[in-house]
């Protein structure tokens, strides 16, 4: 990053990338855009009493509440990073904890009993009141920044889903039910909402898949200070202390940057400002001293942001790269204690038929250029029946009704019908 021919590693830079773009956005939520259309209203009307009871139905949440959610998302991201294999096949780990949090949170809406507790715990949300309301309230907020979040729910025609789950997903996460027709259609949606950055996301969809909870995020940030394309030239980029590759290197002799040397973390931390109020955080382990695995447990991104010094101009070399990452997360999530999702979860808030999660897939991309950063990610939680349905199949309408016709609240605050 400085002119010292930084022997930091590419994988480190990039694995932290998306972590931070979610956080800097969460940091700017002090003034939740009063003009934001309240898309939740129609479905929410009949819930007013119970939500008001819990104080969750406020239009605007405080910045402390948003930051608490930001911290929870960060923890989820770091924990997942610690459990993902970093190997020669995929040296760069790029994750969007935000996308992952949306996917698991949506599943939590339909989870009951121990499964719900387990999911809330892994989301670091067990002690955060109104988690779903606050996380969901970020969706329209993001639309006013350079980050887009899109969600939807694919339902196999004929699959019996509980109306309350569909309604809650729509109310909290604006996730619309869509009939699952083909892998091509699903992939086309992902490609559309990631601005073409993630084509052909899924190879196939097994015929016994009945439900897919999906989201995608797309981010485009323009550097406050652009790099001059004329100055870009080939340079060595160190993957680790021994190996380097030749890449296009963007160069600036005087770049305004907040740079912190953190002796405890044994890393250099730099924040590149984007236009608007977001920034791009790079954490580079000091060569030969730290690595991804040794740093992760010590990393506290909100704390790093707080400690970054004032901006100074300095010489900067930044690689011009485009990277992508795809990963099935079942093993990492199992290592994190979520194995029961894949064997025998209680998803009775979704359907009376026993279901299990069959896959959680994540894909992400990031591209650094002279103008700025473009990044995208998508996550899908796929579920299938865990045994043959005993009941005669009965299809419910895919479009939810405005009023809840079935499933009145069972007990005061729980409107989720857990059988
Ligand atoms: C919830 O879990 C408890 C203990 O694990 C069990 O006794 C109870 O039957 C479960 N409730 C439902 C609705 O499955
Ligand atoms: C993708 O975008 C195209 C063009 O806007 C649109 O016609 C198509 O319906 C979209 N497909 C999906 C699955 O969203
Ligand atoms: C950035 O933040 C400042 C102060 O917090 C605010 O005045 C300004 O409107 C914000 N700009 C954008 C583009 O959000
Ligand atoms: C990372 O650093 C720790 C402690 O410094 C060391 O024990 C570990 O072997 C290193 N891991 C890799 C992959 O280099
Ligand atoms: C990160 O640091 C902030 C303050 O610096 C602190 O409030 C927060 O609890 C820390 N988070 C963790 C997980 O240690």
UniProtKB/TrEMBL annotation:
Q: Where is the signal peptide?
A: 1-29
Sequence ranges assigned to domain Serpin in this UniProt record: 78-408
Mind telling me which PANTHER family this protein's record contains?
Answer: ALPHA-2-ANTIPLASMIN, SERINE PROTEASE INHIBITOR, SERPIN
Quote the protein name from its UniProt record.
Serpin domain-containing protein
Gene3D superfamilies named among the record's database cross-references: Alpha-1-antitrypsin, domain 1, Antithrombin, subunit I, domain 2
Q: Name one Pfam family in it.
A: Serpin
Q: Which family does it belong to?
A: Belongs to the serpin family.
Q: Does the keyword Signal apply?
A: yes
The record's keywords, sorted A to Z, are:
Signal
Is Signal among the key words of this record? Answer: yes
Task: Please tell me one Gene Ontology term that the record gives under cellular component.
Answer: extracellular space
MF (Gene Ontology): serine-type endopeptidase inhibitor activity
Family annotation (InterPro entries) = Serpin_dom, Serpin_fam, Serpin_sf, Serpin_sf_1, Serpin_sf_2
């Amino acid at each position: 990053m400085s002119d010292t021919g930084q022997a930091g590693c590419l994988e480190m830079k990039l694995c932290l990338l998306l972590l931070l773009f979610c956080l800097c956005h969460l940091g700017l939520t002090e003034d939740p855009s009063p003009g934001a259309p309240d898309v939740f209203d129609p479905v929410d009307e009949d819930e007013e009493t119970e939500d008001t009871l819990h104080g969750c139905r406020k239009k605007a949440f405080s910045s402390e509440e948003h930051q608490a959610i930001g911290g929870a998302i960060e923890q989820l991201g770091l924990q997942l990073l610690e459990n993902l294999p970093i190997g020669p096949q995929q040296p760069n780990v790029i994750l969007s904890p935000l996308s992952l949090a949306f996917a698991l949170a949506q599943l939590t809406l339909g989870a009951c009993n121990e499964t719900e507790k387990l999911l809330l715990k892994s989301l670091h949300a067990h002690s955060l009141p109104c988690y779903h309301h606050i996380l969901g309230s970020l969706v329209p907020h993001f639309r006013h920044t350079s980050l887009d979040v899109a969600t939807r729910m694919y339902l196999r025609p004929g699959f019996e889903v509980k109306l309350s789950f569909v309604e809650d997903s729509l109310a909290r996460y604006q996730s619309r039910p869509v009939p699952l027709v083909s892998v091509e259609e699903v992939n086309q949606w992902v490609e559309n909402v990631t601005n073409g950055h993630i084509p052909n996301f899924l190879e196939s969809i097994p015929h016994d898949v009945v439900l897919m909870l999906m989201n995608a995020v797309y981010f485009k940030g323009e550097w406050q200070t652009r790099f001059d394309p004329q100055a870009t030239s080939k340079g060595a980029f160190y993957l680790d202390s021994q190996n380097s590759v030749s890449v296009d290197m963007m160069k600036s002799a005087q770049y305004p940057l907040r740079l912190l040397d953190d002796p405890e973390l044994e890393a250099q931390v730099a924040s590149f400002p984007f236009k608007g109020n977001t920034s791009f955080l790079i954490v580079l382990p000091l060569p030969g001293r730290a690595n991804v695995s040794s740093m992760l447990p010590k990393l506290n991104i909100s704390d790093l942001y707080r400690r970054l010094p004032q901006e100074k101009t300095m010489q900067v070399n930044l690689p011009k790269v485009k990277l992508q990452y795809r990963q099935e997360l079942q093993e990492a999530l199992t290592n994190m204690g979520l194995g029961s999702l894949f064997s025998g979860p209680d998803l009775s808030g979704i359907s009376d038929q026993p279901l299990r999660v069959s896959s959680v897939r994540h894909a992400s991309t990031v591209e650094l250029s002279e103008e700025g950063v473009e990044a995208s990610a998508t996550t899908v939680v796929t579920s299938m029946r865990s045994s043959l349905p005993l009941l005669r199949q009965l299809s419910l309408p895919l479009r939810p009704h405005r009023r809840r016709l079935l499933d009145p609240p069972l007990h005061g605050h729980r409107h989720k019908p857990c059988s």
